[in-house]
Model the fold of this input.
Amino acid sequence: MDGHALANVLAYLTAAVIAVPLFRRFGLGAILGYLAAGAVIGPQVLHLIDDPVSALHFAEIGVVMLLFVIGLELNPAKLWNMRGQISILGGGQLALSALLIALFTQLVFDLDWKIATLIGLTLGLSSTAFAVQLMDEQGIMGHALGRKGFAILLLQDMAVIPILLLVSAWAPIAETGSSVPWWMGFAAVILVLAIGRFAINPCLRLIAQSGSHEILTAAALLIVIGTASLMETVGLSMGMGAFLAGIILANSKFRHQLESDIEPFKGLLLGLFFIAVGMTLDLHLLIEKPLLILGLAIILILIKALVIAALAYFRKCTFSDGFLLGLMLSQGGEFAFVVMSKSVSLNLVDQSMADLLVLVVGISMALTSPMVMLFKRMTRKTESDSKAYDSAIDTEPEVVIAGFGRFGQIVGRILAANHVHFSAMDKDPSHVQFIRRIGHKIFFGDASRLKLLDAAGLGHARVLVVAVNDKKETWSIVRKVRVAYPNMQIVARAHDREHVYHLKTAGADYIVRELLEGSLVAARDTLMSLGFTEGQALSKVELFRTHDETLIEKAADHADDMDQRLKIAAEGRKELAQLFKQDETI
Done:
């Protein structure tokens, strides 16, 4: 490697290592971090890289690998089970968003209908990585609202290949290989399907039996690049080949192995792709027309959010929840950079228009998280100050459960099975609606507000179970209830040891670490797998549990003294080793 190439590699790595963690820290996502890194090291700012086009062409292999991984995720059985949501929500979202965006761009920029349609379809796509991360952070992935969002993203992922084919079909300049007869493309697809159905799994099995992980990784790369190259040779796109290979292997038992082998290459090359896109951004345009670009980004967000809200409302979701989901999926997606890059190279879209759209997509990504947080703050205030929460309960429960997610539901089901009357409260309206549909008695309310707990029957209850999934909120509930009801038995969910100390200080009677029991069972089963008898394994696990509870009691008296707690922990490790040694001699 010559000195110039080494300097380029150092520039890429340094920019990525600095920018990506920084952008993630502020909730802006890795993609924006890569784009910003590229813009800084590119020819418009620091001039560290003078030829971004060559890097862009090489890094497009990352997009090919991304399409392969997307294909792996599209399990045909899963798609069939979700066909209703995918077709109505996903298809409706992309069609309506594309139509409205196309009409807007045609009116404002006086574009040809083909270009307007392509822009509409491209901007109708969301960033899967960005949206999934947001939905996970907001805690809706496991709920009905999250499944709606996932269905929309699935349809968008499947739409990428048709959109790329549309670019090739409408391009005034034919792509290399397009002179190949049409039947060769059809034959290549049949060949790939046949090889995937009858040959790939046996071959992968043989490779896996050799015990060489490196060769299995090489096989994964061969599958992706081989199918992509074959499709390009017969006049189809490389992305279509990789996508097709992924779908074929979606039901393979090697699917997860292939995905994990491809992931590092995909991540690195996609990062390089976005850095290269960042180097080609027209920063002068952003400086010259900031209001235009910001305005277009906000219009894009509002169009997509309102379309998704309307469709979600049609699928029996509240408008507020639907609009929240719409905001999470409202940004332009990373495939806009791919489609625009390809469209420019084929002379389908002008460079100036592509530059404008890429900037709009980048700004829409930057705005998504703040707009979601702002909307949630506004709706939370509205719900708290108005009609939102349920009215008082006319029964007298023995137990009140604050928070009715997975943790609270298990407690509730055991109580119900033993005919113990309880009331539950949760502040997620979509969650409450879902739990009610499956038959549980639950009320909408913020358990951190003592009046609402009173309305749920806390004054008549003997026990409060605090099962909310938020450390500060759990502590606040325990502290308020301990002051208002000194004799109430409080069982609280703790996330970690630090949380245990705080809850003990706040006045909880029983504290349950949510991962402790599962970890102890795993340790017991591990010991038994190593040859310990069941009695020996249980004895050692119970010995650890008792010792750990004693340590927590000691450390809780020094909750604000980290040095003392570290000293207690060090002494505890020595004591535990001695206890196990004594146990072996008995």
